[in-house]
Amino acid sequence: MVFAASFLFDTSGFDNTFVSDTPILGRIARWLSVVYTKDIKLTGILYFHPISDNRVLDTSSRVLRVLRELCGKEDLMNVVFVTTMRGEVSEEVGSAREQELQSDFWRAMNSLGSTTQRFEGTTESPWKTINSHPVSLPADRRSLQIWREMVDEYLPLYRTAAGRTLVDSLTSPMSGSNGILK
């Protein structure tokens, strides 16, 4: 039997009132780089989305694009979308919004292996989410794209795919990403 130490790393959220998205991505990238240089590879990334939101804002769309580039296509299977705040809406509305997120906004990432879980507001719910994600052996874990770019290729953050995506989205108008959920 193989036992592995696990820990959770919680980042500042994007669209923060006091800190812009660029320094937040910088903090995440620096932490990930330090972890990678210690030969620690992640098993998964949990992305929390409040199901009570009746629309997907530009910020959410931007963060999804940055997350996709941070991970790289090969590692999106380790992303778990977790819907939260289910008690704020009826089961019917929550399920309809979750379905729309999966079939529209998260579809590209889901097609590459990302999954969705519900946080039900119970003490068992987080464990269900964590335990639903298979823990691979360290030798089988893949490198995130941002690790390869920043550590292996020595690229500065602004030249990585995630950095370019964030800068591009902040400097060019968004087209059609203000989707309304039913």
Structure summary:
With 182 residues, the protein is an alpha/beta fold.
Outline the secondary-structure elements.
Layout: H1 21-37, E1 45-50, E2 55-56, H2 58-71, E3 79-84, H3 91-105, H4 107-111, E4 115-118, H5 124-132, H6 145-152, H7 161-171, E5 179-180
Parallel strand pairs: 1-3, 3-4
Antiparallel strand pairs: 2-5
Helix pairs in contact: 1-6, 2-7
Summarize the helix and strand pattern as letters: HEEHEHHEHHHE
Rough outline = globular
Q: Report Rg.
A: 17 Å
Number of discrete helical segments: 7
Instruction: Tell me roughly what share of residues is in helical segments.
Output: 40-55%
Count the E strands: 5
Proportion in β-strands: 5-15%
User: Main beta sheet, described?
Assistant: 3 strands, parallel
Q: In terms of structural class, how would the helical and strand content be classed?
A: alpha/beta
Strand line-up of the largest beta sheet: 1-3-4
Overall pLDDT metric: 85
Distance between the termini: 46 Å
Spans with pLDDT under 50 lasting ≥5 residues? Answer: 175-182
Tags for this model:
11% strand; alpha/beta; 182 residues; three-stranded parallel sheet; 43% helix
